[in-house]
Design a protein that fits this description.
single chain; about 325 residues; alpha+beta; Jelly Rolls; 2 domains; four-stranded antiparallel beta sheet; 8 helices; about 15% strand
Length: about 325
Amino acid sequence: MGRIVSSERFYEQHQLILNIIAKHKNDGTGSPLNILIKAEKLDLKFCEKAADEAHRLYGIYVENNQLSESNRQLRDIELFKLKAFNRPCISYLKSMYKPNLKGLFEWGIIANLIGKVINPKNSDGQVTLFNKIKEKQDSYSPNESYLNQFLVLNNYNLDELAIIAANVAEYQRLHTFHGNIASTAIQQKQLLWDDMPHTISNITSFLKCLYKSNDKALGKWSIIVAGTKKKPAVRTTKLGIAEKITTKGVVLSSIFENIGLVSIALHKGPKVLPDPVIVKPFENFTLTKGFSVLNAVNMSSDNKGRYRVTVMK
């Protein structure tokens, strides 16, 4: 008998333990796992509840991780616009206040002892800087501010930029908010799941010893046996815009995991077929017969994609 193919990926482990439990329930008193349950006090009811709860928590993690990443990208788009104003504005005001840079502080601009202006690195700092500049500018009577000429010549509208700054702050808030939810969910899921890979290994090892050279019998428990010395490995692939990539040696019954922000079309075999499986961002698809060779096609003409799949190496 070959080597049992084991996965380190949560979705594949989750599906395997549920399939094992379902087979055990279906076999009833004739299930060979009854021996293991008595000998090692294996609690499959707890395993089933833990699997369901871990899956729920992982779903929360995936959803909020996606929302956190989406808001980060939206924040960065708006932040680019805000920096495009802040940076030259700082330079202009610095030139107006030379050699005494103390006056910059009134605009929210900080300079060190050698006169180097400290430009905020994060989004919160950029928003605060802009708000200080606008507040100072608004405090002047018309035509009295140093900044008037700079704003007119460069066609800057502070009210429009204020909306952009507010967007940056809100996207950052949502990025942090969903990121915190995702972090909590994945930690709670991990606490539930820590011992599950060991439990799965004990079950599969027991069944392998029981059935010895009967790969077909193990297959009924959704246990995959590799007939070669190759080992399964998780491969992460980047898909360029509208790119097609062919992956060979895919482990059947493993999970295709879309970890990008674009939908991916999956085709059985090396050819592009009329009716592909569409896997949306952060969704998964169980790879069945015919997907040992698969074609992944990025359906977006604007953004790159990423996916994970288990292959034999």
